Prior knowledge:
Strand order of the largest sheet: 8-9-11-10-14-18-15-16
Keywords: Aminopeptidase, Cytoplasm, Hydrolase, Manganese, Metal-binding, Protease
Cofactor: Mn(2+)
CATH superfamily of the largest domain: Zn peptidases
Structural class: alpha/beta
Largest sheet: 8 strands, mixed
Organism: Pseudovibrio axinellae
Function: Presumably involved in the processing and regular turnover of intracellular proteins. Catalyzes the removal of unsubstituted N-terminal amino acids from various peptides.
EC number: 3.4.11.1, 3.4.11.10
Helix content: 25-40%
Amino acid sequence: MTQFTSIKFAQYSKPTARSQVVFAGEELNFAAEAEGVMGSASETVARAAKTADFNGKKSAIMHLLAPQGMDAERLIVAGLGKIEELKDRDWVNLGGEVAGKLLALKAEDAEVTFPSAATAQQAADFAQGALLRGYKFDTYRTVKKEADGDKACSLTLKVQDAGAAELSWAEAEAVAQGTLLARRLVDEPANTLGPVEFAAKAQQLSELGVEVEILDEDKMQELGMNALLAVGQGSVRPSRLAVMKWNGGKEGEAPIAFVGKGVVFDTGGISLKPGAGMEDMKGDMGGAAAVIGLMKALAGRKAAVNAVCVLGLVENMPDGNAIRPGDIVKTMSGQTVEILNTDAEGRLVLGDALWYTQERFSPKFMIDLATLTGACMVALGGHRAGVFSEDDDLAAKICAAGETTAEKMWRLPLGDEYDKMIDTPNADMRNTGGNRWGGASTAAVYLQRHTNETKWAHIDIAGVAMGSKKTAISQGWASGFGVRALNRMIKEHFEG
Length: 496
């Protein structure tokens, strides 16, 4: 859920909400719009700022209770620093920080008055940050302690041109809603979100104009997706492949494609994971969650692009029918793979899904997202995702979009030395590198063998999709990582 009952825009007007938010520039410089809100309380604010050593530095926040001279319960002053130096992500983060303060104070209504120097897009970015900060996963809490009781807040953003801000907000909100969908899916427990239920979530996007097709196990068997099916054969819940198409670009133009790993729960299979922390493996579908969230964002903002999103949805369980270490299966590509470790299952799912995507849709490029390897977390921690690609331009576009949106990524290597590590005398390849070294890269080259020379990039989000570092706009367990960055990349480079 989001803790904001509404977020709307309005022209400048007399303050009416119980909580008022204004902005201060560097050295406590207030725009005329802020001065108009504070009125005779301006001197009180100046004295309080001196006592609190608040000078309008970027992201600093000062809170005054019942300021004398204002008909309001509280005033929040948010620092902008030098407004001309603020980047898009700064406005998003500022929205999250202000929203966090309002929610902590249990404010029921608030008005945020922007300086006239702020653009409509900046106000929309601020609103996006607020909406994202308001996310809270409490679906299954039925008994709440009174002290934990949440009060939803209605937020009104006052700007110079409300119409322009609303237009910008329509797009920014669509991206935020895609991110929130990804978060909700990652947070959802596996007992309520199996492959079939996940596929149903994809089907719901048809309401936005997305064409959705769900492939069942019989159809996948017919197509030869034996590696994907092998991962799910130990589960009583059947596997699915969800295919979503958004046709917002030129008719007949090749689509761009995104593929997501959707292991709804990963026990490791016969190669059973340790029990400690296994509950987190409900989030092993973070790649699929990001991909469906991206599709929701594109459709929600009516992106001018043709896009295909494919989700490989399985559950990896260790029953009597599960695959075993040493088993050999044939992938959809016709290549055979020897299973050395059943806990290296995500690449088996993605390999077949990637081959299917390139064969059916002949896309301009494919990008897959997956919570794929602990090795990537060892390399990058919980701060960045790993990007693998032999296409310098595509990798650069992905990483640049990540920097812009603060969904940071770092390019890691492919190459023959890693590719040789997955050779085996018993089959065309094996599903691990044979030891613990270079595990993120050996997983990536396995996927590369299933791209059929289509332009491709792999994003390993193991360290950032769940349990990642808390930020101004993400305070829960699931981050929704990847939706905003990839949407930004598409908007800047592939629309129109």
